[in-house]
Amino acid sequence: MKKELVLAAAVVAALGTTPMGLVAADTYTFSDGSGTWSGDGATEVSTTIASTYEVTIPETLTLPQTATFTEEEDNVTVTSGAQIPADQSILVKLTGGGAGDQTFTAEYEGATDDDINYLVKLNSDAPIANTSSDATNQVIKVTASQAHDSGATGAINVGFSDTPDFKYSGKYSQNVAFTVSVVDTDG
Questions:
Q1: Which residues, other chains included, contact 81 with Cβ-Cβ below 8 Å and sequence gap of 6+?
Q2: 11 or 70, higher pLDDT
Q3: Cα–Cα nearest to 183, from 93, 57, 81
Q4: Cα 54 to the center of its chain, rounded Å
Q5: What is the SS3 assignment for 1?
Q6: Is the Cβ–Cβ distance between 88 and 141 less than 8 Å?
Q7: DSSP letters along 116-141, please?
Q8: Which one in 25, 79, 93, 183 has a CA-CA gap of 20 to 30 Å to 59?
Q9: Burial of 105 (0-12, 13-18, 19+ CB in 10 A)
Q10: How far is Cα 14 from Cα 138, in angstroms, rounded to an integer?
Q11: Residue 63 and residue 120: Cα distance in Å, rounded?
Q12: Of 25, 128, 7, 21, which Cα lies nearest the Cα of 76?
């Protein structure tokens, strides 16, 4: 009997297993010679997938000089293949400063104050707002399954209610902010 225990101990040491050889997450212990189990026999198998998504935002938008609005093009995109929690959405919003709720203001960079107001439209719809507290400044809101399967695009075009009347030559510009966040889909 002693030789068998020594041989079993050598096999256990060589294989790195318990004497039973089948136990994954629990320990078989001998306390009074009869043997007792500790644990429930369950082994958890899991992985955690990090949120990944890519949003493309234009570096510049050019105000038209003679037309009312720029041509529409898909210039804000959420790339397909995004992975976020199932109950959330990727939200892109636009904020800036201006003369009104939907009016942005490009400042003239010359010696004279000749700022010009302009509008920003999404997909040729009504102008979007320029205040961060207003829900109408939303550019794209795409759910987790939409983002993963097909992505999303938003066509931002800038322009004016009427053909602009620039008084001076020179540069008119404004920095606006696109904010990207992951939010609850219902929120």
A1: 148, 151
A2: 70
A3: 93
A4: 7
A5: coil
A6: no
A7: EEEEEEETTSSBPP--TT-GGGEEEE
A8: 183
A9: middle
A10: 63
A11: 10
A12: 128
For residue 134, what are its two tokens? 């207003």
CB atoms within 10 A of CB 187: 8
According to DSSP, the β-strands at 36-38 and 152-154 are unpaired
Output the CA angle 61-63-69, nearest 5 degrees: 105
Instruction: Judge contact between 155 and 75, C-beta under 8 A.
Output: yes
Two tokens, residue 31 = 């306390």
Round to whole Å and give the CA distance between 41 and 13: 22
List C-alpha distances in Å: 85 to 46, 90, 147, 177.
16, 10, 11, 25
| Residue whose pair of structure tokens reads 């719809």 in the numeric block | 125
Q: Which pLDDT tens digit goes with each residue over 33-62? A: 666 655 666 788 899 999 999 999 988 888
CA-nearest of 53, 186, 177 to 120 is 177
For the segment 65-106, what is each residue's pLDDT rounded down to a tens digit? 877 888 777 788 888 888 999 999 888 888 776 655 678 888
